[in-house]
Every structure is written in C-alpha cells, then in structure tokens.
Amino acid sequence: xxxxxxxxxxxxxxxxxxxxxxxxxxxxxxxxxxxxxxxxxxxxxxxxxxxxxxxxxxxxxxxxxxxx
Length: 68
Description:
With about 70 residues, the chain is α+β, with helices and mostly antiparallel strands. It has one domain. The protein is about 15% helix and about 25% strand.
C-alpha cells in the first residue's frame, strides 16, 4: 500500500533514485493538483526547490538512507 502524503505538507522532502524523474507535486501526494506539475532536475545538483510551492527536495543515496 502506498503511503499518501498531503501536498505541500512539509517544506523539505528526502527523495531517492526510485523517485526519479522528480516532479512536484509527487505522485503519492493526495492533492496532486495543488499546482501545475513541474519536473525538477535534481540529478544535477542533489537539491532542488519547487518554484510553485517552495518545497525543497534533497536527493539521498541508498547508502545514506541505510546509515540514518
């Protein structure tokens, strides 16, 4: 079962390679239509900010997630 996240409920999200290509709002967000979908090129920088809602997405490598 997929965990639904309210759109724009947080200001910072950790995402992994499984979430690529990254878009905001993300598919699992309950209010997927809170603003137009925008794709974020997080692979280039490791961190991207949505121009619509200001949510910050941080790309976390699998090794980083298991260590936390």
